[in-house]
Amino acid sequence: MKQTFPKGFLWGGATAANQCEGAWNVGGKGESTADHFTAGDRKTPRRYTAKIESDLYYPCHEAIDMYHRYKEDIALFAEMGFTIYRLSIAWTRIFPNGDDKEPNQEGIEFYRSLFMECKKYGIEPLVTLSHYEMPYHLVKEYGGWANRQCIDFFTKYCEVVFKEYNGLVKYWLTFNEINVMMQPFGGLMAGGITSSEDVTLDIKTDFKETPEEKNRRFNALHNQFVASAKVVKSAHDINPEYQVGCMLVCIVSYPFTPNPSDVIATQRAMQINNYLCGDVMVRGQYPYYAKSFFDQEGVTIEFADGDEEVLKAGCVDFYTFSYYSSGCISTDESVLKTAGNMVFGVANPYCKASDWGWQIDADGLRYILNELYGRYEIPLMIVENGLGAIDTVEEDGSIHDPYRIEYLRQHIKAMREAIEDGVDLIAYTPWGCIDLISNSTGEMHKRYGMIYVDKDNDGNGTLKRTRKDSFYWYKKCIMSNGADLD
Ligand code: BGP
Question: Among 86, 177, 309, 398, who pairs with 126 as Cys (CB 3.0-4.6 Å)?
C-alpha cells in the first residue's frame, strides 16, 4: 500500500506579485522597487536603476500579465487540484506611494476578486504581505526600511487588507525570505534599503557595502522584525482565526569535512543564516548568539522603547520556508566556492547541480524539516521549492519536463519521510507553479512552472499558457494525496 499524506494536507503552488502580475502602472498602482530592476541572465547580473530608463527592459513591468489573466490561471490551478495558492499582494496596489492617506480602491477590489476566484474552486489563499518589493516612494523619500516610519506605513497597509479580506483569507505571511537581509546584497534584493543611485545586483561575487550601509541593513531588518510582530498582533486582534507565519529562505549547510573547525563553522552558519531570524519571529526575542555576531560585525541595533515587548507579543503561528538546495562549509581557503541559492557554499560531491548551479538535495529537505520542527514545534509549510530549468516546446506544442517531475518526486518523498518522523508539515506550495520572471536573474528562461508561458528573455511571446507533463503528474499526485508519485 502506498502511503498518503495526512488528511487535509494542503497542496498548491506559489507566485509573487512582481514576478507574475505585470500591469505595473495600471489600476492606480504606484512604482515599486521591483519595477526598477532590469533583466539579466545566467552571466549578466540584473541592474537596479534609480530612474526608469525608456531604453532599458524591465521584465516585471509586464511579467506574465497575470493581472489580466488570473481567472484563466486560477482555473488551471484548480484543474491540478490545488487546495492552497500562495501569492503576494503588491503593497503599491493598495497604497501606491506607501504614505498615502487613503488606500487605492481599485487595488483593493482587484485582490478581492482574485481571492473570490480562489474560493470559487475551494482554494485557500496564502498571502505574502511583502514579497521582495515596497513602494519606491518610501525608499526615495524616507530611505526605506532603515527608517522606522516604514513600520507604521506597513502596519497601516496590513490592517487595511486584514479588514478588507476578512472571511476570504485565513493564512498570511509577513516578509518573504526575511533572512536574506543577513546577506550583504539582501537589502537591495529584498527592496528594503534600495539606494537612490544605480546599483548592479551581482550576487555571484562579493556585494560591496560600507560599514554604515551594513549597519543600516541590520537596522532595517530589526525594523522589519518589529513591523512583522506588530502585524501578527493586529491580525489576531482583527480576527482571532487568522494564522500568520514567518517566511525564510532555508540555507542548509553541511560541514565539508569532519574537521571540527568545519563543524563549528557550519553550526555558526546555520545560526546566522537561518535561526537568528527564525528565533526572533517564533520565540519573540533575539537569540543568545546574536550579540556576539553583531559585535563581530560592528553593528549596533537601535532598539526603541517597547520593541522587546512588541517582539514578544507578535510571535508567529506557523513557520514557512523556501527550500531549493544545500551546500557545504569549509574552513579551508583553498577549497573552491560555488554559487548556490544566494549564498556561497562549497559544492557537495554527493549532489548534482541545476543549470544555474543550485545543488539538488532532497534528503536535505527531510533533514531541515526535522531540525526546524525540533527547534520550534509549530506547524511548518514548504512555500517554495522546485527546479529552475530550460524547457523545450516540441513541434506539436507539448512540453516534456521529466527533470522537473523527478525533482518534485524526490522532494515530496522526503516530505513524506519527515512526516513519518513526526514532523507537523501541513502544506506544500512549489515555486512558480506557472512560469514567471526569475527573481535573481530577471529571466523567463529559468522556468519552474507546471504551466508553460510563451514569453522569452527579451519580452517577446504570446503569453499563451500550456500544460507541461509535470502538470498532469502533479495533478495525479494531488488527487492521490501524495500516494501516487510514479
Ligand atoms: C526565492 C524567491 C522567489 C523566487 C525563487 C526562485 O528566493 O522568494 O521570489 O524567485 O527564489 O529564485 P529565482 O527566481 O532566482 O530562480
Answer: 86
